[in-house]
Every structure is written in C-alpha cells, then in structure tokens.
Specification:
The protein is α+β, with helices and mostly antiparallel strands. It has two domains: about 290 residues, Aminopeptidase (3-Layer(aba) Sandwich), CATH 3.40.630; about 110 residues, Alpha-Beta Plaits, CATH 3.30.70. It has ten helices and 20 strands. The strands form six sheets. It has a six-stranded mixed β-sheet, with helices on both faces. A four-stranded antiparallel β-sheet has the order 6-7-20-19, with helices on one face. The chain has a four-stranded antiparallel β-sheet with strand order 13-15-11-16. A hairpin with a 2-residue loop joins strand 6 and strand 7. The chain starts with 7 loop residues before the first helix and ends in a 13-residue tail after the last helix. The structure holds zinc ion (ZN). The site of zinc ion has 6 residues, from helix 4. This is Acetylornithine deacetylase.
Length: about 425
C-alpha cells in the first residue's frame, strides 16, 4: 500500500461516500428503467443528472433515432429509445479515457420485481443493483475522487450512459463507436462476479428474425390452396438448429416462433427468432453464409417467401494485444489495493464488445461485485461499493499522473 502514498488521500476520501452511495443505489433500483419504459428512463436520467452535477462536466442528452423490429404479426414496427447521456471533461488532455455503462434494465414496467431489499447486512437484492446502476455510482465516485486530486489535469474523460444495452445497443452503437475512437482506453461498468473475477474474452452475438409469408386458406374447404408459413417456419428452425456443431464453436439458439392462429386456417405468417454466438470473425462470416443458405432453401418452397432481419450487433472481443496489457496493468493496481484481480472468458456480451470492435482496449466489468443478474435474485455485495470505486479511482489517477503502461500510450508517428 505504501507504494501509492501519493494517491492515498483520495482513495481514503472515498470511504465517506458509502452511506450516500447505498441510499442512491436503493432509490435508483426502485425506479423502473426497463429498456422500453421511456418515461422510467427519463426519470432515471433526471436522477443521474442531479448526482453527476458535482463533476461540473459538459453535459449532453442525445436523442436516438427509432429503429425497426419485426412484430409478432409479421409487420415491421418502430422501436423507440430513451436518450444517451454524455458527460465530458478536459477533451484536450494528453490521456483520454471513456467510461461507459447502461442505465436501462431487463425488467419491464409490468415486471413483479420492482423494489430493493436487504438480504443481509452485506447483500442488497433489487432490479439493476448490479446490472448496472451500481456501476453508474462507481463511475461517479471514482471520477469524484479523481477530480479532487491533483492528477485530474493529466487526464480527460467522457462518460456515456446508454438506454438500450439490454436489447443490444442497436440505437446507441454509433455513439459508442464514435467515442471509442477518441479515447486511449475504456472502462466499462458491468458487474464483476461475486468473488471479483472480471470478464476476459467475450463471444460475439447476433439477434435475427426470419419473416415467413405463405398463403392463407380454409383448412376444410381449400386446404390444398394454402401454403403454411408455420410448416415453412418449422423447416427453417430444423435447418438453423442443424448448423450447431458445423460452424466452429458457433451456437444457433432458436428463441421464439410467432405465427399461426385458429386451427381451421392454413397460417400465412410466421416469424422465427434466433440468436447466434461466435468466438471469432471467421465464425461470424461463416455463420452469415450458412444463414443465407437457409433463407434460400426456405424460399424454394412453393408459395413461401422468407426474409432475414437483424444482424450481428456485437463483434467478438478477443483477449490480446492492448486489451491484455490493460488487464495486466489493472491486476497490478489491484494487487496494491489488496484486491486479487482475475478474469475468465465468457459467452456473454456487452458494450465492451462494441468498444473493442472500434479499436478501443477496455475492461468491461469494473462495476460492483454481484450476481444472478437478469433474474429477481439479482444482488450486489455492499462491501464492493467503495472497494470498486477505489480501484477505478486508482486507475484514473495513475493514468492522470502519466503512469500508463507503454502498450497503452498513443503511438507516435
Ligand atoms: Zn448490464
């Protein structure tokens, strides 16, 4: 610990933030901010703006354009989003860091899971406590410590808080990529595992819908005139499932089939929805080719048309090069805070994939320690509230003091 005496006063300063942070985490958890709840996202954003005012940063609220999705009845419907929050300070500084996390949750406005609850003195259960409202508070605390320190002048930062991560960041992807290109490294605040382990390499992921049209007919009077979209959808599902094991380690998961209706009608519409995970770019391109072949095969069925919607929203995030150098540096810093920083590969993905695709080395699980996210058992460990803020504050102060590892410094031309 003595190694960091010059940073110690601001690390210690964070201790006094515990009560305020816990209060905020509870009250923010009780605000529903499911991705589709635009009014709830507005309320959450107002809370964040109030809390972040102490940083005295340049602040923007950015509207996102609607995108399109295939509705269960096969029609194309618009998707609306909340706004992106952007805070920026010292953009001209010699080192620039991008801090990101989402303020939406997976819990819809009508979910039964709406309130936080202490399970024991060190465990808080509640929607978004780990994923990722605790992460937003970790950013706030770490930046607040940095700004009080003399090392702030050496580092400029941008914070992006997006409203659509839980549905794949389709609306905010362009903003994430733009900000990633301007930074030297990225810090993202998805939760760490309960024991503090971070996510290392991540798979890439794509969500797709296949819209299938046939021809309706009365099942009794003119069955043979009909062309069943449901039967074509079943064929499509079996072909997609058959790709498992054929494209490297890529997985094809059929999540949902919409379609059909009364059993006395040959159904004319069906929608097949599926997710694909890939470990690398080759698998991604092969998977795209194979999906295209399935679409072609379904289109050869008499009276049937199939069309593909969706795409790979997340590229794979390999653990190599500058990203690996960043992890090794953070492991060293953690060691000096008595934290054992380990990481392991995961099939999950997050905006860390997007930042990596834009060329930004990043660590994407700098948020609180917790688990069982996306379920009503979601929890955080409260002894990580200040612990994780200290880790981030140390990273920021070290970078501001010019102590970045060589691999992360801008290469001079
Ligand atoms: Zn998350």
């Amino acid at each position: 610990m003595t190694k960091y005496t010059k940073f110690q006063p601001w690390l210690d300063w964070l201790d006094q933030r515990y009560d305020e942070t816990l209060d905020r985490l509870k009250s923010w958890s009780a605000i529903n901010s499911g991705t589709g709840n635009i009014e709830g996202l507005d309320r959450m954003r107002a809370e964040i703006l109030t809390a972040f005012a102490e940083l005295d940063a340049q602040t923007r609220e950015i509207d996102l354009p609607d995108t399109e999705a295939v509705a269960p009845d096969g029609s194309i419907a618009p998707v609306r989003y909340g706004k992106v929050l952007h805070f920026s300070k010292r953009p001209q500084a010699p080192v620039r860091v991008l801090l990101c996390i989402h303020y939406d949750t997976v819990f819809a406005i009508d979910s039964p899971f709406q309130t936080p609850r202490l399970i024991d003195e060190n465990t808080l259960n509640g929607p978004g406590v780990a994923d990722a409202k605790g992460g937003i508070l970790t950013i706030l605390n770490a930046l607040s410590a940095l700004e009080r320190s003399p090392f702030a002048n050496g580092i400029g930062w941008d914070v992006i808080l997006n409203p659509d991560e839980e549905t794949g960041s389709i609306g905010s992807a362009a903003i994430l990529a733009e900000q990633a290109r301007a930074a030297d490294f990225g810090m993202l605040y998805e939760p760490a595992l309960e024991d503090g382990t971070l996510a290392g390499a991540r798979k890439g992921s794509g969500n797709f819908s296949i819209r299938i049209k046939g021809r309706a007919a009365h099942a009794g009077r003119e069955f043979h005139a009909g062309r069943s979209a449901m039967v074509a959808a079943s064929d499509c599902v079996m072909r997609l499932d058959g790709l498992n094991g054929k494209v490297g380690k890529a997985t094809f998961n059929i999540g949902k089939i919409d379609g059909g209706g009364p059993v006395n009608v040959v159904p004319d519409t069906a929608v097949v929805r599926f997710n694909v995970r890939v470990s690398n770019h080759d698998e991604r391109h092969q998977a795209e080719d194979e999906i295209a072949k399935v679409i072609m095969a379904i289109n050869t069925r008499d009276g049937i048309t199939a069309e593909l919607h969706g795409r790979f929203g997340r590229a794979p995030k390999p653990m190599a090069g500058k990203t690996l150098a960043l992890f090794e540096w953070v492991r060293e810093l953690g060691h000096d805070l008595d934290l054992d920083i380990a990481w392991k590969a995961t099939g999950g993905c997050c905006d860390g994939n997007n930042l990596a695709e834009a060329g930004l080395p990043n660590i994407d699980t700098l948020g609180l320690r917790g688990g069982l996210i996306h379920s009503d058992q979601e929890f955080v460990k409260l002894d990580s509230l200040i612990e994780r803020a200290r880790l981030s504050a140390l990273i920021l102060m070290k970078a501001g003091a010019g102590d970045l590892p060589d691999a992360l410094k801008k290469t001079e031309i």
